[in-house]
Amino acid sequence: MVQRKELNFEGQNIYIGIDVHLKTWHVSILTESGCLKKHSQQSSAQALFEHLKKHYPNGNYLSAYEAGFSGFSTYYSLLDFGIECLPVHAADIPTGQYESVMKTDAIDSTKIARALKSGLLRGIYIPKKEVLDDRNVMRLRITLKRQLSGYKSRVKHLLYNNGVIYPECFQNSKSHWSKRYLKWVHEDVQLLSESRNSLDLLLRQVELFRKSLLEITRLVRTLSRNGRYGEAYENIVSIPGIGMITGMCLLTEIGDIHRFRNERQFASYLGLVPTSHSSGEKTSHGEMTFRGNKRLGPLLVESALVAIRQDRALAAAYGEYCKRMLPQEAIIRITRKLSNRILIILKSGKKYEHDRCY
Predict the structure, then answer these.
(1) A Gene Ontology MF term for this entry (predicted)?
(2) pLDDT at residue 280 in the model
(3) DSSP string covering 135-190, please?
């Protein structure tokens, strides 16, 4: 009788590439010897763990997946089953020509597994669980504010479309959306039609979003006093141009400030470094890189516009820049200076010293 030897991968790394979808995961498993197996399964970390335990017992399980719609839930669920995981940016996965023109789930998962085995993958920053909800609150506020602005624009467009003439007291757009303005729109505005259902519906949406925005702003104020942010929050809002909302957005998005080695790396994260093309002795710089946090960059530009009116050092620098470039280019330079100040303040744990040339 032939004795069958049990499989044992003890001491061996098992590399797992996962193409994550809502209902299914396409998985490619690669051993140190190069043996590749692929399968499709339900989107469950437990199902993957049971498969690995059966077919690759006692191995060191190392996985990677392309961070997307599932966020960090896949990472934390795999970690719960002892499977080390590396969420990666889609653009950072090495891709050959064949893989770019023949894109399938199986090819994608295999590409991830091979890159993981070769040590070519660089993981993205993984925030702590307790910070995730705070960050989502700040992102929701940005979304609500954008939607509120959209509904306000629709109301204005509807008034213009119906030939509504603004009274003298509302000719200045700064007076719009005050209590007096809303009273006028609700009570005195008449559209071309006898009814004004469309306007009333839009006004109700504006009121709904304003209430939601007020509620979430109060929540943000409460979060700013939380022990997780208390000292860092007080330090960051001492920087000119940085208020409560921008400060909390920075703290919840950045997480661990010490993950940035230098000012350029931090500026790159914010999307404040230009693209660069170098060949031989010729080097050219283009527009701001598309790689970067899409929420923080615009917020910091707004902060820079405020900062040049509050800090003499930044005001002087802005004036010098404007002598040799357009104002919109100069304000980007000031935003970069502001990002340097943010990095220094958060790393040092000290408050900002006004008019100091950092």
Answers:
(1) DNA binding
(2) 56
(3) HHHHHHHHHHHHHHHHHHHHHHHHHHHTTPPPPGGGSSGGGTTSHHHHHHHHHT--
The pLDDT-based confidence of 99 (bands split at 50, 70, 90) is: confident
83 occurs within a structural domain: yes
Question: Residue 41: in which H helix or E strand, if any?
Answer: strand 36-42
Q: Is residue 128 part of a domain?
A: no
Q: What is the dihedral of CA 211, 215, 218, 224, to 10 degrees?
A: -130
pLDDT tens-place string over residues 242-279: 999 999 999 999 999 999 999 999 999 998 887 655 55
Q: Is 152 among the domain residues?
A: yes
115-162 pLDDT, tens per residue?
999 999 999 999 999 899 999 999 999 999 999 999 999 999 999 999
CA distances from 117 to 121, 137, 142 (A): 9, 37, 39
Specify whether 208 is located in the same domain as 150. yes
Helices and strands of the chain, counted as H and E runs: 13, 7
Q: Are residues 189 and 275 in the same domain?
A: no
For the chain, what percent of residues have pLDDT higher than 70?
A: 93
Residues 35 and 107 in one domain: yes
For the chain, what is the domain count? 3
Q: CB burial class (10 A; 0-12, 13-18, 19+) of residue 172? A: exposed
Cα–Cα nearest to 186, from 175, 173, 200, 176: 200
In Å, how far from its chain's centre is CA 205? 27
Domain residue limits at 210: 136-222
> How many Å apart are CA 128 and CA 223, to the nearest integer?
16
